[in-house]
Write a structure and sequence with these properties.
The protein has 552 residues and is mainly β. 5% of the residues lie in helices and 44% in strands.
């Protein structure tokens, strides 16, 4: 068994909630039940986990197996029949304890690369059945050897007299001497009297080049613990607090996993009464001993020791533009102009934000464009915007809102009292756009193409302005199931398509309600006969003569 990702690894907007297991870049390997139990849930979706299966066990755990190609035959048949009954490829099915029982070691599925993945692998999770919390599977006896200490790459200090979003951290050079970590300077002198630390670190294991997320870390000063965390058990909703546990700006700009060794004001993950939050406030100019301990699940430790001294004369005052509004975590925040209003719920922010809004000229058809703060600041909950266009729109039902950030978000706004109301979960450039164009249906095969049994028919559906709301395919007026992977829809010929000439109708609808329908014809034939290879006889004549070696 070989890992390519561990529990708690930093991902975009979430911690990795299980283990990723290598399948050597192969698909359709058998997946076995970790323990006896029953199939309690099956999900089929284009993104996320793709095709996944949940097993509930009598010991109080539920295991999840994801990115699968297909399920075991009886379950696969049940799911397919329900898909055709519902006329929907996407499914989320719950089962009772007696419907599909499984034994330990039974084949339950076959591995694949469905959903949001970069390549074939198996994603595996363990959850507490009662609470739904995800549990680090490495505590349950997985046969994975790890006798190697984690690696610490860099150390940073944050001036906590200010928001972590307002100032850049200061990097402190460190050195690694045969596994002993220290700072390059014997004593770190700082002008920060109130500060916290951050580290870049990774875990490693025996016999692999893969790097993993760190499991636990502690900060000690003068033998007093200032902060600690362990990624051992928490629920999926809390997983989004990863954006408060890392330097989010460095993550989205360079994918650097810079871990905060402190708790931001709006971070409610692993909060314990009486526990220090990692923000250190020095009142003296004495030299203090600091230790940062990074630990993996097998108790291998990497320790960074250094000394620190506050020097008041090094302190710098920082000044910020007056063209901002202070948004504070833990309370509702709002800001309003003549044609724009933004409202953030109380749990949206992790740290104080000096919020800035600016309107950008040059929007399409006179529609407004807004710079809504900066994408480098994360949000835990979505905010609401209300936009009042300066010009009356001909058809409000065709309007969409598009947010350009570190990823694009498109929403269909509500139109009420001359205002467009939408919701977004990140900052960026916000545009109002009119969408009157239908989606585009593309295919690589010509009309009247001949296909053969065992082959695959596919097409793509894309939209240049908004997003695809619904795609439907009908074979000779009957719904036909296509599997979705991104913008590609594929059908492998089976019993639902007989030999002969067929009509395929594809209907696609976008978020603004624009619809397109196209009809194609094709012919399905039996598999073509295998051509026998013809071995041509050589026309060259053999040379006559004695082939024995001549004596010199």
């Amino acid at each position: 068994m070989h890992l390519i990702a561990n529990f708690g690894e930093v991902r975009s907007d979430h911690y990795h909630m299980g283990l990723d297991l290598r399948t050597q870049q192969r698909e359709n390997l058998p997946v076995f039940a970790a323990a006896e139990g029953y199939v309690s849930r099956v999900v089929v979706e284009a993104d996320g986990y793709g095709k996944s299966i949940y097993l509930t066990h009598p010991n109080g755990y539920t295991t999840l197996y994801a990115h699968l190609n297909k399920f075991f035959p009886a379950l696969q048949d049940f799911v397919e029949r329900k898909q055709y009954h519902d006329e929907s490829w996407k499914q989320d099915i719950s089962f009772g304890s007696s419907q599909f029982r499984v034994a330990k070691g039974q084949i339950i599925a076959y591995s694949g690369a469905t959903g949001s993945v970069e390549g074939p692998h198996l994603h595996f999770e363990v959850r507490d059945t009662k609470t739904g919390d995800n549990i680090n599977p490495l505590f349950l006896g997985f046969p994975i050897k790890d006798q190697v200490k984690p690696l610490i790459y860099s150390l940073y200090m944050y001036d906590r007299n200010y928001s972590t979003y307002a100032v850049e951290p200061v990097q402190i050079p460190i050195k690694n001497t045969k596994g002993v970590y220290t700072t390059k300077d014997t004593v770190i002198q700082t002008g920060f009297n109130k500060f916290s630390f951050g580290i870049s670190a990774e875990d490693i294991a025996n016999g692999t080049n893969f790097r993993f997320g760190i499991y636990a870390a502690e900060v000690w000063m003068d033998s007093v613990q200032q902060f600690s965390f362990k990624l051992q058990e928490f629920d999926r909703e809390a997983s989004k607090y990863v954006n408060a546990s890392i330097d989010y700006k460095k993550w989205i700009t360079s994918k650097t996993r810079l871990q905060h060794l402190s708790r931001l004001p709006g971070n409610h993950l692993f909060v314990k009464d009486g526990e220090n939050d990692g923000v250190i406030n020095l009142q003296d100019t004495l030299i203090h001993k600091v230790s940062i301990v990074v630990t993996d699940v097998h108790a291998n430790e990497a320790v960074l020791n250094f000394k620190l001294q506050w020097k008041p004369e090094l302190q710098q005052e920082r000044f910020f533009t007056q063209e901002t509004v202070k948004f504070i975590p833990g309370k509702e925040n709002s800001y309003e102009t003549e044609n724009f209003k933004i409202t953030l719920p109380a749990n949206a922010l992790y740290d104080t934000v000096n919020f800035r809004l600016s309107q950008i000229s040059g929007g399409a058809n006179g529609l407004p464009v807004f710079q809504v703060h900066q994408p480098s600041v994360p949000l835990h909950e979505p905010y609401t915007v209300e936009i009042t266009p300066t010009e009356e729109q001909k058809d409000p039902s065709k309007m969409i809102m598009r947010l350009n950030s570190n990823r694009i978000q498109i929403v269909k706004p509500e139109y009420k009292d001359g205002k467009y109301i939408g919701s977004f979960d990140r900052f960026g450039v916000l545009l109002m756009m009119e969408d009157t164009l239908p989606p585009n249906i593309g295919k690589s095969w010509e009309d009247s193409t001949v296909f053969y049994k065992g082959g695959t028919l596919s097409f793509t559906v894309k939209d240049g302005i908004s997003t695809i709301e619904n795609v439907r395919a009908e074979l000779d007026s009957n719904w036909l199931m296509f599997e979705q992977k991104g913008s590609t829809y594929s059908y492998k010929f089976d019993e639902y398509c007989s030999v002969g000439i067929h009509s395929l109708k594809i209907i696609a609808k976008d978020l603004a309600g624009n619809e397109i329908a196209r009809t194609f014809t094709f012919e399905l034939k039996e598999k073509p006969p295998v051509k026998k290879k013809v071995i041509k006889k050589s026309t060259k004549k053999k040379k006559n003569g004695n082939t024995s070696k001549r004596r010199r």
